[in-house]
Amino acid sequence: PIPVVLDVDTGVDDALALMLAVRHPALDVRAVTCVAGNASLEQVVDNTLAVLELSGAGPVPVAAGMSTPLVEPARSAGHVHGGNGLADLARPAHGRRVEPVHAVELLRATLEATSEAVTLIALAPLTNIAVLLRMYPRLAERIAGITMMGGAIFVGNATPSAEFNVWHDPEAAEIVLGCGLPVTMYGLEPFRRVTCDADDIARLRAAGDPLRRTAGDLLAHLDGVTGEDASGGRVVGIGDAGAVCAVIDPEGVTRRRAPVSVSLAPGITRGRTVVDLRTSTDTARPAEEPDGPVEVVTDVDGARYRRLFLEALA
Ligand code: BDR
Ligand code: CA
Predict the structure, then answer these.
(1) 20 to 30 A from 210, CA-CA: which of 23, 131, 148, 289?
(2) Atom of ligand 1 nearest to the CA of 13
C-alpha cells in the first residue's frame, strides 16, 4: 500500500475522505494532521478522531496543527459544514486521544520514521504543509508528492475567484505550489464532478453499519452544496474524497502540467489560483519557460470514482 498522511479540516467531505482512506487497501494511513479551516481546530480534531473510530482505523496518530492561517485570522465555514463542522451529527464515543505534539512535528516524525517516500494528501488550507516545508526543508526528499484539494481553474466558491482552501490561506498555498515537489492540484472542477445520487444516499442511510449510515447522512447534508450534474439531475459531490480517489486510482483523472500561482493581492482576486494553460504557440508565453512539477487535474471519470468510493465503504 501507498504510505500517506492526510492533512484535514474535518469537515463533512473530509470525513468522507478519511473513511475512504482508512477503508481502502491501497493506502496505508500513517498519520492524520489537523488544521483550522471548515471548523475551528478543536472541532476538527474532535471530528477527525470520531471519524477514525467510526471507520475502524487502527491506532493512527492524530495531531493538531495551525489554528490560524499564516497571515489572516481564521474564518469559519459553519454555514456549509454545520455548527460542529460535521453536519451537527452526534459524534460516536471513543477513547482516542490527540498526540501531545504539534501537527508539524508529527509530520516530521512520520517522514523520518520510514525509508519510503510518503504521499501527502492535503484536503484543507495548506498552513501545516507550508510550515513543515519552511521548518524542515530537508524533509522534502521524503515526500513522494502532494495531492491537494484546492484551487480552481475557473470559478471559485469562497469568492467568485477563489476556492475555499486556497482563499483561507493564500500564502501557504503559494508556498506549497511553488515548493518544487510534484504537486497534483485537484481543484474545484473535479471536486464537483464526482457525485452520488439520491439512490446511493438512500442505500447508505439504510445500511446496517454505522459507517455507511453516517456517510449517507453526511452526503445528505451536502445536498445542494457541492454536486454538479451535466444533465441537470440532483446529485451530491463527494468533494475531498475525490482527491483521495486520485491517489488510489491516478488513471481516473486527466492531468495537465502547468505553472500555477496564487493571487496574493488584497481584493476580489485574493486566493485565486492562476493556472497558465497557454501553450508554447501562444506568443505571450516564452517557449523556454519550464512547466514545473505542478499537475492540474482538468477532468475526472466521475462514475469510476463514485464506484471506487461506494465499494470501499461497503
Ligand atoms: C474545500 O473546502 C471545504 O469546504 C471542503 O472540505 C474542501 O476541502 C472546497 O472548497
Ligand atoms: Ca476540506
Answers:
(1) 148
(2) 6
Write out residues with Cβ below 6 Å of ligand 1: 11, 13-14, 38, 77, 80, 123-124, 149, 157, 163-165, 239-240
* Helix 41-54 / helix 12-23 crossing angle, nearest 10 deg: 40
CA distances from 162 to 109, 168, 214, 252, 271 (A): 33, 9, 30, 25, 5
Closest to 272 (Cα-Cα) out of 112, 183, 172, 159: 159
Write down the pLDDT at residue 76. Answer: 74
197: β partners: 235
53 CA distance to ligand 2 middle (Å): 19
pLDDT tens profile 12-33: 999 999 999 999 999 999 999 9
Cα separation, 248 vs 301, whole angstroms: 13
Tell me the per-residue pLDDT of 223-233, one tens digit each, with 9 for 90 and over.
766 677 767 77
CA atoms of 287 and 113, how far apart (whole Å): 42
pTM: 0.96
